[in-house]
Amino acid sequence: MSALAKASGALKSVDYEVFGRVQGVCFRMYTEEEARKLGVVGWVKNTSQGTVTGQVQGPEDKVNAMKSWLSKVGSPSSRIDRTNFSNEKEIPKLDFSGFSTRY
User: Fold this and answer.
1) Which one is catalytic: 46, 79, 82, 102?
2) Fewer CB atoms inside 10 Å of the end CB: C or N, the chain?
């Protein structure tokens, strides 16, 4: 585990799905940008149901900040109706080295 992770306490992982007007509004690009700013890792992708889904991992406080962003902020022209979080758990190490868009 990196010194950064140790200093900030437990590492968390959470899956998310964002509902609303979240496709065709640069949501994935802004999500990737926000994740890099916060220093969390994981991925984001569009679903065939018109939602955006993904996973975020990192120190608990940073994951919580990303959860808040995914629930309330999003991209400038998006409209978030609701965000579901699942599989929230403590993890021994990060599964990803960065944050990426999946297709």
Assistant:
1) 46
2) C
Q: Which residues of the chain have pLDDT under 50?
A: 1-6
Q: Which residue among the candidates 21, 28, 79, 82 is catalytic per the annotation? A: 28
pTM of the model: 0.90
Return the number of other C-beta atoms located less than 10 Å from residue 2's C-beta: 11
28 is catalytic: yes
d(CA 86, CA 80): 17
Q: What is the pLDDT of residue 5?
A: 44
Q: How far is CA 31 from CA 19, 48, 54, 92, in A?
A: 14, 18, 10, 24
pLDDT digits (tens, 9 = 90+) for 22-40: 999 999 999 999 999 999 9
